Amino acid sequence: MKKIKHKHLKINKKTPAEPLFPEPWRNVPWGKEDLQEVKKQLNEMKIPHLRVLVYGPVGSGKSSFINSVSSIFRNRICSPALANANNDENSFTKKYKTIRIQVDNSENSPSLLFNDIMGLEDGTKRGVSVEDVKLVLEGHMKDDYKFNPVSPLSTDDPHYNPTPSEEDKVHVLVWVCSANSAESNDSVAKKMRDIRETASDKGIPQFAVLTKIDEACAETEKDLKNVYRSKCVKEKMTHFSSTFGIPLNCTFPVKNYSDEIELENDVDCLILSILKKIIHFGSDFISDTVQEQKTE
Ligand SMILES: Nc1nc2c(ncn2[C@@H]2O[C@H](COP(=O)(O)OP(=O)(O)OP(=O)(O)O)[C@@H](O)[C@H]2O)c(=O)[nH]1
Ligand SMILES: [Mg+2]
To answer: Record's SUPFAM superfamilies (predicted)?
Structure first.
């Protein structure tokens, strides 16, 4: 009898990998009103202002992050830090600006101050210079200074503050990076590490905010509550954490307000969960600095 040779059919059994973990690996109190808690934290601070500097590559969402926080406090969409509508190669933010977010309308209300700066760019003499970011950290730059990538702020410039107070100095440094961008650029990462080193020497607490998670992950775009179940977002966070050296527990994913015209509870909750950490660490830093000055 003739043997029938069965052709071995190769069946592709590979099913698409499950994009979500069964359970979230970090808890976000969705639906819980955290704004009051954040306001309480700010009211308990030892100085009237907490100054937060956001820095990062061009177009990563720095101005949008500040606008998102501001919108949550004002309970309506607002954009005190102008964000870019296009995907430009060069930084849209050209001037140094402090955005004040007050806890309430009373005269002595404490406030969150966000410093918006030009983006970091690849190569020398492009984008904000490392020297300028260091001057901002130390409180030497005055509002409305127009960044010049070719030469940093000089001591004889009218925008140079020779005697910064404790409130002029930065209390928390936030690295803002897009989850949707191509591989991180070596020259930008080098500049970032240089700035980070100066901040670390001063003991300034540091965070990383990973923006545009809606663009980077379809499951998160569908439902923001999937953010800590998304394998893709976790992979990106782990990658960014190891590339830039900011621990995973100080790395937070966000979706900024970009094309929305109304506030959304999930967007608020995610941003507030980060803000609580920023204020916690910032307040600790301020208390420690006040303590050190007392013992000096
Ligand atoms: N979908 C989405 N878009 C975002 C998000 N964050 C920012 N964007 C958009 O990204 C673009 C750049 O945002 P900006 O806030 O201007 O970025 P930037 O870092 O301040 O940019 P430069 O000032 O040019 O360095 C804008 O069109 C924003 O609407 C986000 O989380 N999701
Ligand atoms: Mg900007």
So the answer is: P-loop containing nucleoside triphosphate hydrolases (SSF52540)
